[in-house]
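Handout for the seminar on molecular recognition.
Each group receives one record of this type.
Step one: identify the two inputs.
Step two: read the structure output and locate the region that could contact 3-hydroxy-3-methylglutaryl-coenzyme A.
Step three: write two sentences on what you found, then compare them with the reference statements printed after the record.
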Amino acid sequence: MDLPTTVTVYEVGARDGFQNLARFIPTATKVDFIDALSDAGLPAVEVTSFVSPKWVPQLSDAHEVMSRIHRLDGIRYPVLVPNEIGLDNALRAGVEEIALFTAASETFNRRNINATIAESVELFRSVARRARQRGLRIRGYVSTAFGCPYQGDVRIEDVVRVVDELFELGCMEVSVGDTIGVADPAQVGELIDRLGRRFDLSAIALHLHDTYGRGLANVLAGLQGGVTIFDSSAGGLGGCPYARGASGNLATEDLVAMLHRLDIHTGVDLERLIQASVQLSETIGLSLPSRALAALRARRRRVPVTPMRPVPPTAA
Ligand code: HMG
Ligand code: MG
């Protein structure tokens, strides 16, 4: 197989994962988790969102989290910003990278940020200009790129148009999201092929969810198409508050375990990543869906395998 030799794993657990939890996670727990993810060698750790606390109460401590984490050299710590207020607050917290987010489907965007796609892009124009003037890096997100919970199918042309608009705004990287986890490998291959004809694929990220268990199959399709940036969340934390049925994001442990098995370099220390997820899971009392996390934890604990017993013949 012709696959890339190095992949960037972009960690979204502390933002995309936490935003879905109803019970408020204490700020100190969030900070410890983010620091542990940095220590595990993840090259990009999305920290939080500077969004309205009325819309996403879980991330109402964005300023405090951003100020308290221990930032390591060479690691990106982006935050989501929906508008000018968000940018002001992010600047006050000393962020160096923001992520602007819109969608490929109108209904989803309306429910997510209360704006049409065109309105959101228009609103981002001044946010992006100001961010660039302040020397910030900008990432873009296109949600519902493979399907929408309200509208169903999404046209590839609509995805390409929004990706184009985000690059026009000055985004250095655009992440296309399977927000509800409905994509299949053929669809991923087709979208990447179309994006690759127009954009440099080294600036395109895939943001996959594992709702139907197709996350890793879709990663492989992305790798084969030439994508080298993948979003994922530690332990598989996540979903989307405005996308019912969107179960976990692709788990970082599953992604990293597969990439390493394929001899693809990530720079991530899988053992330390597992420790970060286990620590979080025990602190907040939440079981995490990652398959690799469960398998590697069991191996570490040397969980005994129950011997098979012959099944007694049933009476005829
Ligand atoms: P709105 O209600 O239309 O905004 O919300 P507004 O301008 O009318 O403001 C309403 C109130 O919020 C005002 O306060 C503003 O000051 C305040 P009030 O006068 O009522 O006291 N406000 C803010 N406060 C703090 N920070 C701000 C801010 N903006 C306004 N930035 C808005 C519009 C965009 C603010 C709202 O819809 C919002 O915050 N939405 C966030 C939604 C969100 O975070 N969704 C999840 C992230 S997207 C995602 O998960 C998908 C992704 O992972 C990719 C994938 O999975 O595919 C990226
Ligand atoms: Mg997501």
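Reference statements: DSSP finds twelve helices and nine strands in the chain. The pocket of magnesium ion (ligand 2) is lined by residues 16, 177, 179, 207, 238, 240, 249 (CB under 6 Å).
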